[in-house]
Design a protein that fits this description.
Largest sheet: 7 strands, antiparallel
Structural class: alpha+beta
Radius of gyration: 23 Å
Strand content: 15-25%
Distance between the termini: 52 Å
Order of helices and strands: EHEEEEHEEEHHEEEHEEEH
Number of strands: 14
Number of helices: 6
């Protein structure tokens, strides 16, 4: 097996007024020094460029004119006061759960099935990455808790004829050690076993030098029954429906992860590891895709190749919700590339 770098949105050198990654192995949920990109970067840029931000407001309805163009964006503030925004172009970038929920809530006589939903595909084809890991104590020290969370991954199982039977798999080597246990929990457990002083220090060092976690990620197939809809029976603190999520992990992903766990076992055996444990299968909260899929046919998709809604000439939907398939790689760079393409189309439209 060979290792390759996985795409990551973090600075390797000082760039854009943000420092380079210092390798503190704690990138989730936020980078403590700002080396990893997050949406606040461009929110600040937009405000400096003259954009007006409405903090803590939640958009709950889009209103379309007779010609199909979106005329008004309605929002609600925490104090329950309301407001509206208008513009020549409307861009929705509320990720793969809130975006379809908003579109489906925007029902009226002109859009009886919701905005951008003549195809009845808004909210459908919800996809994620399915994660499963194995952890153990290696015989030789491997020194985790140093460097970025992930620097490399096994690439042999990403593609091939096998994908007709089971999912592609990305297997990453984590620098986070046993993240859900960690040095603090290790120290508490050792103290409870009576270790103190120098013996405690040496035991913590010995274990934390050997805590290895391997994580595998499987792609899921697009399934129209996996979907998001507004839940009119459950609302949030300002009276907006919460999302109702219907999601099933398919056998395609489960079969891929079953083989991945065997590979994990082989790797830990080669490292003469002890305390090896297979962790539960989980749905990744960091990768949520689909629900406003891209396509050429307006009868089967929500947006076109430029992320413009088929049903509304001035509405663009930007983010991972436009993905027609999930793959198994982190989608960040593809999302950025698609956003740049949409921005170019919008810019050309203004120039015209």
């Amino acid at each position: 097996m060979s290792l390759a770098v996985f795409p990551q949105a973090r600075n390797s050198t000082y760039y854009d007024e943000r420092p380079q990654c210092c390798g503190n192995a704690s990138c989730v949920p936020l980078c403590p020094i700002g080396a990893k990109y997050d949406a606040s970067v461009h929110a600040i840029k937009a405000e400096k460029a003259g954009a007006q931000l409405e903090p803590s407001a939640v958009v709950y309805r889009l209103e379309a004119k007779a010609d199909g163009r979106i005329s008004t964006v309605h929002f609600r503030r925490p104090d329950l006061s309301t407001g509206l925004a208008t513009g020549r172009i409307v861009v929705i970038a509320a990720h793969a759960i809130e975006t379809p929920k908003l579109l489906l809530m925007s029902r009226d006589e002109r859009t009886p099935k919701g905005v951008a939903n003549s195809s009845d595909t808004v909210g459908r084809y919800l996809m994620s990455h399915i994660d499963q890991g194995t952890r153990g104590l290696t015989k030789p020290p491997i020194y985790p808790y140093r460097g970025p969370v992930i620097t490399s991954a096994i690439r042999e199982f990403r593609d091939g004829p096998f994908r007709s039977k089971y999912s592609a798999i990305g297997t990453s080597i984590s620098n986070e050690g046993w993240r859900h246990v960690g040095p603090q929990a290790t120290a508490i457990a050792l103290i409870e076993h009576g270790l103190t002083g120098q013996r405690l220090k040496e035991a913590i060092a010995w274990r934390t030098q050997r805590e290895l976690t391997l994580g595998s990620t499987a792609e899921t197939l697009p399934d129209p029954s996996n979907r998001i809809v507004p839940d009119d029976t459950r609302t949030d603190a300002i009276g907006i429906p919460r999302p109702r999520i219907h999601y099933r992990i398919d056998n395609y992903a489960k079969a891929g992860l079953k083989l991945a766990m065997r590979r994990h076992e082989d790797i830990f055996a080669a490292l003469q590891s002890t305390e090896v444990e297979t962790l539960p299968m989980v749905t990744s909260s960091g990768t949520i895709l689909g629900t406003t899929r891209m396509g050429n046919d307006p009868r089967e998709s929500v947006v076109d190749r430029d992320l413009r809604a088929h049903d509304h000439a001035n509405l663009f939907i930007v983010g991972g919700m436009v993905f027609p398939t999930a793959g198994m790689h982190p989608p960040t760079l593809t999302i950025a590339a698609l956003a740049l393409r949409a921005a170019l189309t919008i810019k050309q439209g203004f120039a015209g």
